[in-house]
Every structure is written in C-alpha cells, then in structure tokens.
C-alpha cells in the first residue's frame, strides 16, 4: 500500500484532534505515515498510534521551529522525496495552508485547500460559496497536497505501535528569512478549543456587547464560546472565536446561537453541527430555518434562566 503523509499538528507533543482526523482519512487512502516536526515526539506517540500511524518520521532540527513556515515546507519536500507518498494531508490552519502552498510549488504538484472530505482517489469535497456549492475534485499532476478542514472526519481508533525514524533535513538560507522572535500562548480560558468542542454557545450582535450570559451558559455546559462576525467586528469578542466563512468551521454535537440572525456566511461555519438551538427575539430570523430547537425571546432573560436550570440539574 502506498504511503500517505500526515503533517502532525501539535503543541509541544500534545497532538491536536485535527491530526486524529487526518490519520483517519489517511487510512482510507493508504498507509498513514506521520511527519512530526519539533520536540516531544515521544509524548505524541501514543496518540499517533491510537489513530493508526504506522510510522512516525521525526524532524527535530531546532531550526525548523525557529523560523516561520518556509523551512517546514523544505523539510516536507525532502521527506516526500524519500517516502514517495501517494498524497500529503495537512490541517487547514493558516500555517498549514501556507506550508501546503509552498510544498505544492516545490513538488510541482496540484494543491487542494479546505477539503471537507477526502475519499479514495483521492477525491476531495470542498464546500464553496458559503456552503451553496459542493465541489468534488481530484489532483491530476504530481503528489496531491491536500489541506483538510477540522471536523472533516470522526476520528476512528486503530491501535498501532508506530516506529520512529529520525530524519535529518538541510534547510537553505533562503528559507531562514523570517525568524520567530517571540511567541505567547493565548490566554487560557479554561474552556475547550472551539474547533474541538462538543458543545458551543455563540453570541452575536443581539448580545449588545455583553457576552456575560453567553459565557455563563457555556461554562454551565462545559462548552466553548463562539461569536458572529458582527460581534467580532464590534470588538466585543476576539477574532479567534469567530464562527463562519471567514472564521472557524465547527461541527459540535450541540451549537447554541444566541442573538445571531443566521446569515449565510455564519451558517457556512456551523451548519453541520449535529443539533442546533437558536435564541432570538425575532421569530422571523433566518436562523430558525436551520434549527432543531428554537426559543423566541430575549437572550438576556433566556440564557440566565437556562444557566440556572442546568446548574440546578447538575447539583
Ligand atoms: P445581525 O445579523 O445583526 O443579527 C442579530 C440578531 O440578534 C437579529 O436576528 C436580532 O433579532 C437578534 N437579537 C437582537 N437582540 C436580541 C436579544 N436581546 N435577544 C435575542 N436576540 C436578539 N458572519 C459570521 O458570523 N461569520 C463569518 O465568518 C462571516 N464572514 C463573512 C464574510 C463575508 C465576505 C461577508 C460579506 C460577510 C461575512 N459575515 C460573517 C457577516 C454576515 O453576513 C452577517 O453580517 C453576520 O453574521 C451577522 O451577525 P449577527 O447575526 O450577530 O448580527
């Protein structure tokens, strides 16, 4: 079976859920080989084995982490030259997409970004024009380089014990033009990461800028907090929490939209959620076309009441 390379997305050895999704997809296409860049590969091994990586290629040269994306693209090119994979899968993060683009140029290969599904072939599915069209595509030149959006697959366990192969790379001076001078983790909220959360409570313009009731309800459920672009553009919530076409794509078990009208660009980021609940004071709001449960009412009254109820049930 042909090898399929998966670039591991991790923070200091803690593997992100998107990598489990990529490994699950890679198993449909061939033999999943994980490419791990940075320190902490031993910490990452159990998670990589759990989702079926048969081998882990470890690139530990510190220069790979000292500069922005260019050295990583060069390193992947060198790994690809040795492994000759049938496809390369990378997470659709900002960094992932930049690495993928540079890599595709180096390999003289076709590139597909933001796939929401990848099947044998590999044939990709993309959701475009705010989810109004679904495009199926196949790369016909070179080694397919594909970036995959979060939640494109449900991670399926397949216990393996991957062997680790250290891989030496040589990084050109041209790739070392942008050095990372400082990096700080985002302030910890104690809430789950937006794209990985099972429950998300999002607030929109209807909050009037007060996200207190949204956060309190989210905390009662152990949920992540999201926001519409109107709320983000108003400076009420950071862009990292924006859900939608120009924000994050989420697909939780439960998505609660409070004070959000349901514009097509917002739907594009959350319409695949398993259960959707909306709280909106306008019974004609378009979000109600999409929901499983709708509450017509003022979120400043509905959310505190719901929070109190959930808290009571838990005690
Ligand atoms: P509004 O549309 O103003 O809706 C507010 C809702 O709150 C209304 O339905 C109102 O009835 C209700 N409300 C008001 N007060 C209360 C209350 N007290 N209690 C309950 N309900 C109340 N948007 C995104 O969200 N994500 C994106 O990624 C995104 N990308 C975009 C990309 C492009 C290229 C463009 C053109 C637009 C994009 N947008 C995006 C913007 C999108 O078109 C909408 O403008 C935006 O989603 C509206 O946000 P909203 O629903 O919070 O605000």
From TrEMBL:
Name of this protein: Electron transfer flavoprotein subunit alpha/FixB family protein
Pfam name, any one: ETF
Annotated Electron transfer flavoprotein alpha/beta-subunit N-terminal domain residues: 4-185
Role description: The electron transfer flavoprotein serves as a specific electron acceptor for other dehydrogenases. It transfers the electrons to the main respiratory chain via ETF-ubiquinone oxidoreductase (ETF dehydrogenase).
Keywords, alphabetical: Electron transport, FAD, Flavoprotein, Transport
Family: Belongs to the ETF alpha-subunit/FixB family.
Signal sequence segment: none
Cofactors required: FAD
Keyword Transcription regulation among record annotations: no
Subunit structure: Heterodimer of an alpha and a beta subunit.
SMART domains tied to this protein: ETF
Organism of provenance: Kribbella sancticallisti
Protease among keywords: no
PROSITE patterns: ETF_ALPHA
């Amino acid at each position: 079976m042909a090898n399929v390379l998966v670039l591991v997305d991790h923070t200091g050895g803690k593997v992100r859920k998107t990598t489990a999704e990529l490994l699950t997809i890679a198993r449909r296409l061939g033999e999943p080989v994980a490419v791990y860049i940075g320190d902490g590969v031993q910490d990452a091994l159990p998670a990589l084995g759990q989702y079926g990586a048969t081998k882990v290629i470890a690139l530990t040269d510190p220069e790979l982490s000292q500069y922005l994306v260019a050295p990583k693209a060069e390193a992947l090119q060198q790994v690809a030259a040795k492994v000759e994979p049938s496809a390369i899968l990378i997470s659709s993060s900002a960094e992932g997409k930049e690495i993928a683009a540079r890599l595709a140029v180096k390999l003289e290969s076709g590139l597909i970004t933001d796939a929401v599904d990848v099947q044998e072939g590999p044939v990709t599915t993309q959701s475009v024009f705010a989810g109004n069209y679904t495009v199926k595509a196949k790369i016909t030149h070179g080694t397919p380089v594909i970036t995959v959006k979060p939640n494109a697959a449900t991670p399926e366990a397949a216990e393996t014990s991957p062997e680790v192969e250290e891989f030496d790379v040589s990084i050109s001076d041209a790739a070392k033009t942008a050095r990372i001078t400082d990096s700080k983790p985002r302030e910890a909220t104690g809430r789950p990461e937006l794209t990985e959360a099972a429950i998300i409570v999002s607030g929109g313009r209807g909050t009037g800028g007060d996200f207190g009731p949204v956060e309190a309800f989210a905390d009662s459920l152990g949920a992540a907090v999201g926001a519409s672009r109107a709320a983000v553009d108003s400076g009420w919530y950071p862009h990292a929490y924006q859900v939608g076409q120009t924000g994050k794509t989420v697909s939780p078990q439960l998505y609660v939209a409070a004070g959000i009208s349901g514009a097509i660009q917002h739907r594009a980021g959350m319409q695949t959620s398993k259960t959707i609940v909306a709280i909106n004071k306008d019974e004609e709001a378009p979000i109600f076309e999409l929901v499983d449960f709708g509450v017509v009412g003022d979120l400043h009254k509905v959310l505190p009441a719901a929070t109190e109820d959930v808290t009571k049930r838990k005690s």
